[in-house]
Design a protein that fits this description.
With about 500 residues, the protein is an alpha/beta fold. It has 15 helices and 19 strands. The strands form four sheets. Strands 11-12-17-16-15-18 form a six-stranded antiparallel beta barrel. It has a five-stranded parallel beta sheet with strand order 2-1-3-4-5, with helices on both faces.
Amino acid sequence: MTSLEQFEVWFATGSQSLYGEETLKQVAEHAKSVAKGLSESPRIPVRVVFKPVLTTPEAIRALCLEANSAPNCVGLITWMHTFSPAKMWIAGLTGLQKPFVHLHTQFNRDIPWSSIDMDFMNLNQSAHGGREFGFMASRLRIERTVIVGHWQDEAVQDRLATWLRAACGWNETRRLKVARFGDNMRNVAVTEGDKVAAQVQFGYSVDGYAIGDLVQRVDDVTDAEVEKLLGEYEDQYTISEELRKGGARRQSLRDAARIELGMRAFLDDGGFKAFTTTFENLYGLSQLPGIAVQRLMADGYGFGAEGDWKTSAMVRAMMVMGAGLTGGTSFMEDYTYHLDPKGMKVLGAHMLEVSPDIADGKPKVELHPLSIGGKADPVRLLFNVSKGSAINATLVDMGNRFRMIVNEVDVVAPDAALPKLPVARVVWVPKPNLPIAAACWIHGGGAHHTGFSKAVTTEHMQDYAEMAGVEFLTIGAETNVSQFKNELRWNEAYYHLSKGF
Ligand code: MN
């Protein structure tokens, strides 16, 4: 599983030397207690590290450059306790390669009406100090999140936590390695894309590996390792009669377990936290990896089917952003519709590869034929997903830029049991409704593959997209088609022109 424990955010307080030593000492004490208070808050997922108060351009630049090269630092929280003349920030901010959030807060929550004097006014100047800093960030055209409110306020801490999770996802994306077993599904368009452009924009690398090399790793797995993993399956899942010990198809489960162990070894040896497969490239593997992919996803490996590396990398980032939250994240596909006007909904699934991270209850392990691929029947985990709010996210390559679209959905119970459907499934109602959501998604060029999450929200994805500098579109309760189409047209112009800004 993924954990955010090792990550930290640096707390950078802006001031200037004008106020004298005594005031600066107080500024530092305040900043220390804000950083400590945030760090100790159970709402904040990473360590908040206090850094000495910044009063010169040299110190600001040095801190920014140090942050760039600190592997566990996911970004900066900037706070202007006093007035910090913003020309001092130019050298630092132009050199900063990590994201920053502007926390527009002040140490005291309330104005001390009866005791306020000019000393208090000189010390507590965030209200205008934050505006001077904000001007410079806007003047430099730097995307960032601005959070306004008292630092002890739960809503402020929750907003900060969202940003920090996005920053952890972004930190992961910058160093992620994606392994591709086989190429794209032949003739499919949306799973293609410019891998060089993706590496420039996101930092992750995407490389192909021979199925033969994976098969070698699968063959190297010992019988003892397979038996041990089967024991784990027995502990965690309800296994169908024919796959149980002494069952007629037990060998299929052994083969599936062997594939899981081989894939895991391959990924771990190469430092890959995301991967793709395709049913068109399985030479030497006895069955399409089903339960293997499902369980690897549940352990935090990003995944995209049919060679879909963009979705795989995005799913990994979503897993990091959602680490420790309830709900889970999975690769997903809009599979089939229920178009009854009284309650339109979508059935989401895939041929096999849905993560048990989103399962409601104990998954079942079953063996069923797969009508495509021409291989032995693949073993898969079967489950439903519980009700609640969720998102579907897509990342597409528009030729001149990457575009991310998020659709907010409500997971609902299926109208009836699905006794003959042999795959894990989710039923959802998209916001604002299926006709508008699907039309907007299609106008935006959104893929049939998505990252689905009950843990990650639109806000996480928007913060992440802004860190990545990619186009971001939301389809939610307020969306209508003509407004959405206008947004697409305006964005077309913006992203064309913004290269020259
Ligand atoms: Mn697919």
